[in-house]
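Annotated sample (chain length 246).
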Amino acid sequence: MDNEIRRELRLLKGYAIVVTALLGTISLAAFRQASQKQKFTEIDVERINVVEKDGKLRMVISNRDRSIGPIYKGKPFGYAGGTRPGIIFFNDEGTENGGLTFDGKREADGTYHSQSGFSFDQFNQDQVLYLQYNDRNGRRNMGLTIADRADTDIYDLVAERDSIMKAVPEGPARTAAIQKWAAPRNGVPLVAQRVYVGRDVSKAALVNLSDRNGKTRIRMMVDSLGAPSLEFLDETGKVTSRLPEK
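Output written by the structure step:
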């Protein structure tokens, strides 16, 4: 009996040694594999998160369903994800600061829509430099926009808007409250287009230069028929001078 017990103990000890050695080998192989650069010929993926060592997002590449909503210092706000296939960029604080998005499809009735945009955001704000293409069943425009935005934190702005939407019932009162929310603050608009270079829905090529309130003051254009013009406008939008004169 004693010999049998000793034999079983030796077997158990040998088994423990073998298992320990195998686990050590697997762990070492996994460590080496994780620390080495991997190369793939082709990969199918629904989303890729590029993160810093502390876990902060730097870039998200995703399809529509797994796309991310707005993020401010690592916290979601504004609206849920699932609407922006493409690439979203984040700054050192984990706040969204631009991206590349795109979509497009033909509907059952034969109409279609398509759009894409490449944008860069003001710090803790929304886009101020962006390249966009929009097409609604052939009614299309595309161009480069440079804009000014108020030095107001976008997280606070969205929180103000959301509180209005929750507290004020739908109707004229809510409309008035939202208009007040969107109005200039201390004389500064929340957003003002300053430069636009592109092609509008009338098939005209144009350059618009605007004042700090977003009012176009100089318009250079070649219309859809090839006629060139240069217009100067006042702050109300009235043309004060034009070349060639009509």
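Annotation: The CA atoms of residues 70 and 77 lie 6 Å apart.
Annotation: The chain has three domains: 1-39, 40-106, 111-150+185-246.
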